[in-house]
Specification:
The chain is an alpha+beta fold. It is 33% helix and 24% strand. The protein has three helices and seven strands. The chain has helices at 10-23, 62-75, 119-134; strands at residues 2-5, 27-32, 36-38, 49-58, 92-94, 103-105, 108-110. A hairpin with a 2-residue loop joins strand 6 (103-105) and strand 7. The two termini are 20 Å apart. The model has no long low-confidence stretch (mean pLDDT 93).
């Protein structure tokens, strides 16, 4: 899962999300990348984004997790309707992968179709992988 924020205190938002997931009975073995400060893309006249990647085991199915992602974004203040594409946001959560599933629907594509093109995903994934090797 990729997470990003550039509205409010992004670090506190991420910490609250982390705490929520660690306390949720359907999540285990949570791992996080270090935080990564990344320039906004698309609409660039906004604050830089703080990004990270999370990996975990879950008993949720892919659609249940997708619904939970929407709930979590709203819980931390993200409006469902964006004023414009790439607008600033309190919390953006992208499902990047779900096991090795290939899934294509109008509302969700897995793996995420642009994950290989975004430093906001590639750098945290690389750093997270380095941390796993060192553990």
């Amino acid at each position: 899962m990729g997470i990003g924020s550039n509205v409010g205190d992004s670090k506190k938002i991420f910490e609250a999300l982390w705490l929520y997931l660690t306390r949720h009975r359907l999540f285990s073995r949570l791992h996080s990348s270090p935080l990564y400060l990344n320039p906004a893309f698309g609409y660039t006249k906004q604050r830089d984004f703080t990004n990270a990647t999370l990996s975990f085991d879950t008993a949720l199915g892919v659609l249940e997790l997708f619904r939970l992602v929407f709930y979590l974004e709203r819980r931390w203040g993200r409006a469902r309707k964006r004023p414009f594409k790439n607008a600033p946001r309190t919390l953006d959560i992208d499902m990047l992968f779900f096991n090795r599933m290939v899934y294509k629907q109008p509302y969700l594509t897995l793996p995420h179709p642009k994950w290989k093109q975004r430093a906001s995903v590639l750098v945290p994934l690389f750093l997270q992988r380095l941390a796993w090797r060192g553990a």
